[in-house]
Design goal:
The protein is of the alpha/beta class. It has three domains: about 290 residues, FAD/NAD(P)-binding domain (3-Layer(bba) Sandwich); about 80 residues, Flavocytochrome C3, Chain A, domain 1, CATH 3.90.700; about 90 residues, Fumarate reductase/succinate dehydrogenase flavoprotein-like, C-terminal domain (Methane Monooxygenase Hydroxylase, Chain G, domain 1, Up-down Bundle), CATH 1.20.58.100. Helices cover about 35% and strands about 20% of the residues. The strands form four sheets. Strands 1, 2, 3, 6, 7, 8, 9, 15 and 16 form a nine-stranded mixed beta sheet that branches. Strand 2, helix 1 and strand 3 form a beta-alpha-beta unit. Helix 1 packs parallel to helix 9, helix 6 crosses helix 13 and helix 12 runs antiparallel to helix 13. It is globular and about 65 Å long.
């Protein structure tokens, strides 16, 4: 809808959702179902998130009397920093999530009794991982996108969120870079839900996870939480960005050391290990055919005769502090940044603690998205749009910041990305105060040097989009070392 404000036509929505993965899609469905006008802000295009690498399916207490054991395993994996209430609440919703996905048409891998197949996984006292094999991310994302389309939810593609607009700790809207035209636009909204990817790009490059939602929160002056927790996925193919679902370990896959001895997932960080799929169950191969062919295409390795070199890669769980309704809080949870919500990888409700139980991240994406979407919609319906010149001022500020990126004395996006990789790896190796002081100095130097863009065009300038994402990762890095 369009509202006339201060003589300017301004695009206005009751709820704006930033992201395109399962958490964002589920939030959009919940928001529109609760009655609010809703828009999805997608930095890429439809279907782009279906190719995200699988890590694990969804953890659910299928066949168990209740979810208590799942909750306890979650707490054990996260340690003493785990929020036990959040863990209990999320684990308790798992069966409902599975039922909803099945009702919407998801084809689960089945057991002989016709129930969703469950796989064992490290950290779980019982078999709990369910889904569609290596297609879980793709198929669940596709199912959610179908539901979004059925509800005729407006979706803005190729739009990179670059800042939140707020007035006295209350959301007024957000600004976007239209990457197809280079224009900076703004949206007025009563509520904003941040549900973007994690910030794994600190260890690789922004395309692997720019942490857009967390960066927007950090730049709004809110302290992120859980930023020094670096849980790892043990089955990543060395030299690639490919992740192998943890479920393969319950289908005949074995982790082995150089000498051929069996190894545990925890050994991968300390020793050179390989994944041996030569004994892979023939019945399971059809459910993991995509990853099998992907390994063959990317590495030339045949799982029937070769072993696969693997390494452990970080899966981020830090983000905006949120309460049980998905509201972003500050002042140790005592205050709400009014109108601002976060879900999935942009949020941290304390459920994972210092670890991450396999299958819980995907589960939390879906539960937190639904919670944030429902509450944001019901809250926004009771509020009025605010008259504020801040929105136009924020556009002007962003335009000036983008001009400053064209700094002939700065470093290239590749150099900045490599510098961030080096700094985050240094933190993992040594987080002593003396080391952090040095890292802070190096990060300050990167900030002062600035980013140099070689592409000066406005239209489809992917280098500019990457530079903006790198600026966001720098903001996240500052929070990690603060």
């Amino acid at each position: 809808m369009r509202l006339l404000r201060l003589g300017l036509y301004m695009e206005s929505w009751e709820v704006a959702i930033v992201g395109a993965g399962p958490a964002a899609l589920r939030a959009a469905i919940a928001s529109i179902d609760s009655g609010a006008s809703t828009i999805l802000i997608d930095s890429e295009g439809i279907g782009s998130r279906q190719g995200n690498p699988p890590i694990a399916g969804i953890a659910a207490s299928i066949g168990e009397i209740n979810s208590i054991a799942h909750r306890d395993d979650t707490i054990n994996a996260g340690g003493h920093t785990t929020n036990k209430v959040s863990a209990a609440r999320t684990c308790g919703e798992a069966i409902t999530v599975i039922s909803e996905l099945e009702r919407w048409g998801l084809v689960f891998r089945r057991n002989q009794d016709g129930l969703p197949h469950v796989s064992k996984a490290p950290g779980h006292s019982k078999a709990r991982l369910t889904g569609c094999g290596d297609a879980s991310v793709r198929e669940i994302t596709r199912i959610l996108e179908e539901q979004v389309i059925k509800r005729k939810i407006t979706r803005r593609y190729d739009s990179l969120a670059i800042s939140l607009i707020s007035d006295n700790k209350q959301i007024r809207g957000l600004t976007l870079l239209d990457t197809t035209t280079g224009q900076v636009n703004s949206i007025q909204s009563k509520a904003v839900i941040l549900a973007t990817e994690g910030y794994e790009g600190l260890w690789t490059n922004p395309s692997e996870g720019a942490g857009t939602g967390a960066a927007l929160v950090a730049n709004a002056g809110i302290d992120l939480v859980g930023m020094m927790n670096f849980p790892k996925h043990p089955l990543s193919v060395k030299g690639t960005n490919m992740h192998i679902p943890i479920e393969v370990l319950d289908a005949g896959g074995r982790i082995r050391k150089d000498n051929g001895d069996d190894a545990e997932p925890s050994d991968i960080e300390e020793e050179n290990c390989v994944l041996d799929l030569r004994g892979f169950d023939s019945d399971a191969k059809i459910w993991f055919s995509n990853i099998i062919s992907g390994i063959k295409n990317r590495t030339g390795l045949d799982i029937n005769v070769d072993v696969i070199p693997i390494s452990a890669k970080v899966i981020t769980t830090g983000g905006a502090p949120v309460d049980s309704k998905g509201r972003v809080t500050f002042n140790d949870g005592k205050m709400w940044f009014t109108g601002l919500y976060a879900a999935g990888r942009s949020s941290n409700n304390g459920m994972h603690g210092a670890g991450a139980l396999p299958g819980n991240i995907f589960l939390e994406d879906l539960t937190s998205g639904q919670i944030a979407g429902s509450h944001a919609s019901l809250w926004a319906l009771k509020e009025e749009f605010a008259n504020s010149i801040l929105i136009q001022n924020e556009e002007d500020t962003n335009l000036q910041q983008i001009k400053e990126l064209h700094n002939p004395e700065g470093k290239s996006v590749g150099q900045i990305s490599a510098s961030l990789n080096s700094l985050i790896n240094n933190i993992e190796q040594d987080d002593s105060e003396s080391s952090l002081i040095t890292i802070r100095e190096n990060l300050a130097e990167i900030n002062n040097t600035g980013i140099k863009l070689t592409d000066t065009s406005k239209i489809m300038n992917t280098e500019l989009a990457t530079a903006i994402q790198l600026k966001g990762l720098i903001s996240i890095m500052e929070q990690i070392i603060s």
